[in-house]
Amino acid sequence: MLCFINASGSKRQQPLAKFEPQRRYATLVALAIEGMATVTDEIIDLHDRILGKLFNAAKNKHQQQFQASGKAINAKVRLYGHIGQALIDAKQSGSDPFAAIEAVMSWDAFAESVTEAQKLAQPEDFDFLHRIGESYATLRRYAPEFLDVLKLRAAPAAKNALDAIEVLRGMNTNNARKVPADPPTDFIKPRWQKLVMTDTGIDRRYYELCALSELKNALRSGDIWVQGSRQFKDFEDYLVPPEKFASLKQSSELPLGVATDCDQYLHDRLTLLETQLATVNRMAQANDLPDAIITESGLKITPLDATVPDAAQALIDQMAMVLPHVKITELLLEVDEWTGFTRHFIHLKAGDLAKDKKLLLTTILADAINLGLTKMAESCPGTTYAKLAWLQAWHIRDETYSTALAELVNAQFRHPFAEHWGDGTTSSSDGQKQQGRKHRPYQPEVWKQPRTDFLHPHLRPVRAVSHQGGQRRRARLDLRARWPAVPRVRPAHRGTLHRHGRLHRSCLCPDAPARFPLRAAYPRPGRHQALHPQGRYCL
């Protein structure tokens, strides 16, 4: 039950036995559906990893074989270089070319070297796909059950690939060893053609491998979706149903911030433009434009003050010289000694802690800066992609990120230095100057105030409930953003800021069970979009 609660994003363990029967069963059904979606996504993700690992292993073995024959190839190239030079000299002097070859090496040795060169030569379509067949037994251990449990649907572009999957399902059910006559083959790429289509017919192994590979690619592109999945569901499920959209449009109840009638919208905007131009003209004549003046030479705008004053910049430079230059992983290790946040990154199966904390923090850092495991492994001597990928697969998950972030937030809240910024009940903006637009008539009492006070007169802060590290706190969220059409949000009650809709993968607070909390925003529908307009990070 706890697994289902964690999967559904709940941060509290509700005593279900105390619920009334209708609510209790509804909660269990919701958690079961959410748990099934999580398990389905994990199964597909695991299949993707297995295929990627098999392809990488085949590619590495192919490269190792080519490198092993590199010395022999180089020796043959040098030998034929000498023979070619001897033939050129014989042509220029008019001597016997066969005698020139025998002057370099005997004729029997030359014939033997030609045979060896033919063995070393690779075909024109030099590829490693033929080695994928060596891992066919690995896929057969789970592929029949994997295909049997997924409810797949396809767009027209991937219909042929889905038909091939249906053929594989039928073969698995009937325990057939040969591919039936006239199977779908339009999905087979030219790269696979020579392996699948042989002189004796269709090769069963490579046909199945090609179909599973195309299934992986179609799931990534969205051409094939899975019913009951969260990450691989149909794109149409994210949209308003056509029937509901038509009903809302007919009743003029579409939740849009603008008029749906084009003529009315243009009339309103032109009216607003004329009003604003008249206001600017009147203010310009009275020389009352804020931070600007219109003269015969044109418009002059007063430049903004420097974000950092010169005196403050000198202090910043002085402090930067005092601070030691340390590696970020060493800094994270020191923070871990204070807080112990790495103890939450336990093994998925055994529940053990990571043996190498530095390697664990390197993997987390690769997620944090969006560098990726491959480039991180190349940047860190002594680190391999395999080690980082293993740690990411077994120790780094949504729930481990959430609990570790909660540990850091609580440690920062308990630090005495944090008291200088208040008791944690309110939250201020970051102080940056955001570009905004005025959305109400000119009011002198407003324009005489500082610039940041009238940038967003249409927005107001709201109070909402936040749960960080198991502690229930109220945070005053300032929803001032650079986009004016932000819907107002009612305060959440007895829940978290993330109880509505799907979540942003860019959220930094512990309530967002994002696997990669520092990656770019991932647009999702739902009320959580209102709390994070245009992908702004969570407070």
Automatic annotation (TrEMBL):
Q: Where is the composition biased (Polar residues)?
A: 424-434
Keywords (A to Z) from UniProt: DNA recombination, DNA-binding, Transposition
Ranges for region Disordered: 420-444
Biological process (GO) annotations held by this record are: DNA transposition
- Ranges where the Tn3 transposase DDE domain occurs: 330-437
The answer on whether this UniProt entry bears the keyword DNA repair reads no
List residues traversing the bilayer.
none
- Which Gene Ontology terms cover its molecular function? DNA binding; transposase activity
Q: Describe the family membership recorded for this protein in Swiss-Prot or TrEMBL.
A: Belongs to the transposase 7 family.
What's the protein here called?
A: Tn3 transposase DDE domain-containing protein
